[in-house]
Amino acid sequence: MNNNKRSPRRFSLHPVLQNITLTLCFLVMLSSAGFGQGNDEESIKQIAEKSFNEMLNRQADKWKANWKQDDKARIAVTASGFHAEALGWDSIVKLVATFPPPENPDQLRISTPNIVVRTDGNMATADYITTVVSPSTDSAGMRWHTFSSFVKDGNDWKVTSQLFTNLSSFNANSAKAIEDNINSAGYQLMNANRLNDAIELFKLNVQFFPKAWNPYDSLGEAYAKAGKKDLAIKNYEMSIKLNPKNDNGKKMLEKIKQNKPL
């Protein structure tokens, strides 16, 4: 007979508690990561939408604050018969300053319903369509495709590049697209030193679209380059009357009246 009795086996909670604790920590980490990613995507969406609106409405200080302002920043704008791009922050500022101001900004309706955001560490992209409805567009509005890249700078996301494509400009049935295409062709003629031909085309654009401000602005510029001061003043004044926010037209008009270099 064996008198050695076995000690009762003790059940320890320590391994179980450790496993539960580790599992909970893992779940918390996953939840925090998902929450952080969600916050990043929401921030990027807000910046993407604001950046387009602020550039369109000439809110320069707000627009600049969204950017990583360095020599690697890039912007490109493409439309039917038009393309412009700039590399480096100083070049971007100069290019954006040449963009025409919005017509009747108080009457603009801007919508960006679906922004697709992709994040990978400190880099991100946003891909979206923006529709702008104004008095000069039809009910469908003007549609822009924007592709933006972002980099995380500290705790903030900053724009590093933007590619804008005016989708509506390729629509031959859009009155605004026709106006813009004629206007672009006029500038191509002017850049090719065919100033008289450019004037004739701008005059035709004014005839086709007498209530649009930009054709008058372009015709005024062409007349000014041709040395026809009175006609330049007349067309710039009409452009400003149709669009009181045409600050570039106001500056040009002042230079012409004061005989300053254009």
TrEMBL record:
SMART domains: TPR
Residues in the signal sequence: 1-33
Matching InterPro entries: NTF2-like_dom_sf (IPR032710), TPR-like_helical_dom_sf (IPR011990), TPR_rpt (IPR019734)
UniProt repeat feature TPR, residue ranges: 213-246
Keyword terms: Signal, TPR repeat
Signal found in the keyword field: yes
SUPFAM superfamilies: NTF2-like, TPR-like
Protein name: Tetratricopeptide repeat protein
Phylogenetic lineage: Bacteria, Pseudomonadati, Bacteroidota, Chitinophagia, Chitinophagales
